[in-house]
Specification:
The protein has 19 helices and 17 strands. The chain folds into 2 domains: 11-54, no CATH class; 101-232 and 277-492, Aldolase class I (TIM Barrel, Alpha-Beta Barrel). The chain is of the alpha/beta class and 528 residues long. The strands form 5 sheets. The chain has an 8-stranded parallel β-barrel with strand order 4-5-8-9-13-14-15-16, surrounded by 8 helices. The protein has a 3-stranded antiparallel β-sheet with strand order 10-12-11, covered by helices on one side. The protein has a two-stranded antiparallel ribbon with strand order 1-17.
Length: 528
């Protein structure tokens, strides 16, 4: 079975093979490498542009995700419907209808304060990359009016050109303040805004600033993400910017303080610097200490976001989250990413989502059997449509009540922004002219609903937010239809028996019953 396609070439790095369909399956090189070829492939272009080929391009204008075909993914499971009964509602054909499915959920400890969500979705953190920053106000407003959660990612303060520091700590960050307010001013009272922190953010006191000055209640400790096992990176196109971030303590390559490097940049021998974050050093003592610091700083809700690290690290995340009694543990499977992770790393490291969710359930079962605290759990890593949401919630039941998403809501924000601005300018794209040519309400099917919700404020709404809301409403109706067919009328009633594995391998990895083995006990009772 081949797990990768065109492994020496990809649209993500703007490379291709000369022989296209004829290549060596283990090296990815053209079967016959020709002396005289200008070098279309990863190897050829790397001989000319070197480390530039590590990253997808154009940098800062795209989101990227793995093109690796993992042996098992969520398509290897099917949703099980039934003709009998109903859970979470009266078993009455006039009451058990799909619009009655309740998709709301909460984050927080039972009996304590809780964050309420209209939909079981959190947008995993959007950090300092240009593609996130350029679309943030549309995405944040869309999440706010939809009643879902969204997290501000790493390095937003550190990258803020107008950052004000006092004794090495954040005193004022217009960039972070704007991001928080972009959500808060459209909040309906459901959903939430959280602020994430990596090593540099923690040193700068970003979360303490957000809690003390910006009215933020939820913070997230970041261990990693599903796209990479190193710190975040961006590219810088001016020497001044590279020097500024170097002075703030970031790793900047090549060293912008080196006179030789400065001369090479001025001579246009290269045109971008790289800014990298440091990796964290996780320990139980350090984690517990940080949770205590954040609670003392006023955090009402504390989350942990971990990536696709090895199984022992997942076990650490589960144990530490339980011992510290945090509110949400988000586990991100390999393959995704909203920013600019190294392309080969995005494809070739970490535990894919189905696999890591299978392990996650095992570890949570062990803690639950001992009566330990189980936090709310979110699973992330490639979820985009309603069947994905159902399967992720069912496979992780009864622990998983949130699905983490990133690239797809950002896509909805970008498309909504671009189409909406075109409509406002009187230039409706041909793709949508059949729907009308005059107003947002004609083009966006949910625009009237949003307008009725917001009243006069509708005209001030970042137009991409309509795209995010409309996308979420599609997911909501699709998920309700699946859940109704399974006779499950709220998130809490979903169970692992609501899906079946289509292969023995998928069953072994996930612990979900093989489709030919489902319901055996009940079948015997029925037929006997």
């Amino acid at each position: 079975m081949s797990f990768s396609k065109g492994i020496n070439a990809s649209a993500a790095t703007k490379t291709r093979l000369r022989t296209k369909d004829s290549y060596c399956p283990y090296s990815g090189m053209c079967t016959n490498c020709l002396d005289g070829c200008p070098g279309y492939c990863e190897i050829g272009k790397s001989a000319i542009r070197g480390k530039e080929l590590l990253y997808p391009s154009p940098f800062g204008k795209i989101t990227s995700a793995s093109e690796k075909d993992y042996p098992v993914d969520y398509s290897h499971f099917n949703i099980m419907g039934t003709a009998v009964g109903a859970h979470g509602i009266e078993a009455d054909s006039d009451k058990a209808i799909f619009p009655a499915v309740d998709l709301s959920t909460t984050i927080g400890s039972a009996g304590g304060s809780q964050l309420k969500l209209d939909l079981p979705i959190i947008v995993a953190a959007m950090g300092s990359t240009d593609v996130a920053a350029n679309n943030w106000e549309h995405l944040a407003a869309g999440c706010a009016i939809s009643g879902v959660g969204i997290a501000i990612g790493e390095n937003v303060c550190g990258m803020d050109p107008d950052l004000v520091l006092e004794n090495g700590r954040v005193k004022h960050s217009p960039a972070l303040e704007k991001r928080v307010k972009d959500f808060q001013k459209w909040s309906t009272g459901k959903g939430f805004i959280a602020v994430q922190a990596n090593v540099e953010d923690t040193r700068l006191g970003v979360q303490e600033y957000a809690l003390g000055k910006l009215g933020v209640e939820a913070v997230e400790i970041k261990w990693g993400q599903g796209a990479k096992d190193i710190g975040g990176e961006v590219k810088l196109n001016t020497l001044e910017r590279a020097l500024e971030l170097y002075a703030r303590g970031y790793i900047v390559l090549p060293n912008p303080t080196d006179p030789t490097v400065q001369m090479a940049f001025k001579n246009k021998e290269f045109d971008e610097f790289e800014r990298h974050s440091r990796i964290g050093m996780v320990s139980e003592e350090g984690f517990m200490s940080r949770v205590k610091e954040l609670r003392n700083a006023g955090a009402k809700y504390i989350f942990l976001k971990t990536g696709a690290y090895r199984p022992a690290d997942l076990a650490r995340a589960v144990k530490f989250a339980s011992e510290a009694k945090i509110d949400l543990l988000t586990v991100d499977g390999a393959g995704g990413g909203t920013g600019m992770s190294p392309w080969r790393m995005m494809n070739e490291w970490g535990i894919p989502t189905v696999y890591i969710q299978g392990l996650l359930v095992q570890y949570l079962d062990k803690l639950a059997s001992r009566g330990k605290h189980i936090p709310n759990v979110a699973i992330a890593g490639g979820f985009t449509l309603e069947d994905h949401l159902f399967k992720g919630l069912a496979l992780g039941a009864p622990y998983t009540n949130i699905i983490g998403m990133a690239r797809s809501p950002l896509t909805a924000a970008m498309v909504g922004k671009n189409i909406g601005e075109s409509v406002k300018a009187g230039k409706v794209p041909a793709e949508y002219k059949t729907n009308g040519e005059k107003s947002l309400e004609q083009i966006f099917i949910a625009a009237t609903e949003v307008k009725n919700m917001l009243g006069d404020a509708f005209d001030k709404l970042p137009v991409g937010a309509i795209g995010v809301y409309t996308y979420y409403q599609r997911l909501a109706q699709g998920l309700r239809q699946f859940m109704c067919g399974a006779r499950k009328f709220n998130i809490q009633s979903l169970a692992r028996t609501d899906i079946a594995a289509l292969t023995k391998e998928a069953s072994e990895i996930s612990g979900i019953a093989y489709i030919m083995d489902c319901d055996q006990g009940e079948i015997d009772d029925i037929l006997s």
